[in-house]
Amino acid sequence: xxxxxxxxLSANGFNDPANVQSLxxxxxxxxxRAIIAKDLESGDRLPPTRVLGNDxxxxxxxxxxxxxILCAENYISPVQGSGYFINDVQIKKxxxxxxxxxxxxxxxxxxxxxxxxxxxxxxMNHSAHQGIAFRPGLPPLDVFPIRQWQTxxxxxxxxxxxxxxxxxxxxxxxxxxxxxxxxxKIYRNIKCDARQVVIVTGSLNSLSIAGDLLVDEGDxxxxxxxxxxxxxxxxxxLKAKIVAAQLDSEGLSLExxxxxxxxxxxxxxxxxxxxxxxxxxxxxxxxxxxxDWASKKNCLILEDDYDHEFSNxxxxxxxxxxxxxxxxxxxxxxxxxxxxxxxxxGYLIVPPYLLPAIEALYEQTIRFVSxxxxxxxxxxxxxxxxxxxxxxxxxxxxxxxxxxRDCFDKHFEExxxxxxxxxGLHLIAKLPAHIDDIKMSNYLEKNGIVAFPYSxxxxxxxxxxGLLMGFSSVGKRVIEEKIGKMHKLFQDYLLIK
Length: 497
Known about the structure:
Layout: H1 2-11, H2 23-36, E1 45-46, H3 49-56, H4 60-72, E2 76-79, E3 83-86, H5 90-100, H6 112-120, H7 146-159, H8 174-187, E4 197-200, H9 203-214, E5 220-224, H10 229-237, E6 241-245, E7 247-248, E8 251-252, H11 254-258, E9 267-270, H12 284-297, E10 300-304, H13 308-311, H14 320-323, E11 329-334, E12 346-349, H15 355-366, H16 371-382, H17 385-412, E13 417-418, E14 426-430, H18 437-446, E15 452-453, E16 466-470, H19 476-496
Parallel strand pairs: 5-6, 5-9, 9-10, 10-11
Antiparallel strand pairs: 1-3, 2-3, 4-12, 7-8, 11-12, 13-14, 14-16, 15-16
């Protein structure tokens, strides 16, 4: 059986290049077809999983998964100590034939909403490259307290109850929501009921929820320029009418909004703690003016507290939410840029009247973030691990910013200048006007360096050329090595042009 099984499977489609299924599905499907064609008969013994894996150049786990499918569908049966044997499947032959005869693709039309999101996905800044130098928005990944997190994870599984393993509150775990509310009361002067806290997977999830709740086609959404490129993509995907607000030394300029003819603005998206990506901090006076303007316009403010911990840890400014007295602010924060992006955990604080709608949205679409991650994060905050970790990452980030700046200035000298950002998790290299920053970004990525094009951060009007680079996720040696390589690539790119 072993000698000719490879040829039997090949004859039943295993090596068909048109078959793009996963390997274990291709293998199980080929065996099923061989059984139906009587190439494999009742009572035949299949090779052991390790042997068949070696014969077909597959991993043993792939063969095991294929055998598990065949067992579940009763095509084969395991016999302890002897292996897997083919069953008599006369009755199943018709069933399998009936469901596999049609090869016609079914392609109903996409919804208008899906078409919009597909149309604007190119506006987002993301990278297919697996490297982390110099991807913006990453914290110092190498200082994450893995052992503390592992201990909390082990404790969870020791103490978890059956009830906790069932469905929970779609808006989030009660203990985590309470601990976030307590944390924000101390560090952000935010006083809110824990029931106003909604657990999300991060900033994009927050933007998507706010958009689903409030934005219909043609609704006016005010955004800073420049601003978070992925937010531009989300609101354009919702077919919102984007109104670009200019920046001045105090943050978003209300005067620039007043020059635009507005009908009824629905949402104003702002990053006041450390404007993304320019680094301008919104003044206290401007925050109060913005609240007064939004109240008069019946417009909600979506406050993205981006980079607060890295930019205002020593001298924090009260959040817009903390100044609000009219339920006109939705506040969003994330742990992904404090811990690591794969934790996929953030939060919204919303006016109470929005909670029933969000709960309905969660129940019917998103469900909720893993209760395990929520429980561990709750303990991480409660034991004061979070505040200790933030102090460490702020210190490391500041050190690496200095290293990056010195090394960049040494290599590039007068060719390219860094935008003088003194805080936050990224730096901006302003490029000469004749260099297309999107093409430059693509060129660098092909050669193993990630840097996002600055022009993508401008929703409308005149766009600036540059590269956004994160510096804190890698150490001194990698920074020096990659900047040296980046400078050589820059010189090569100029020659190519």
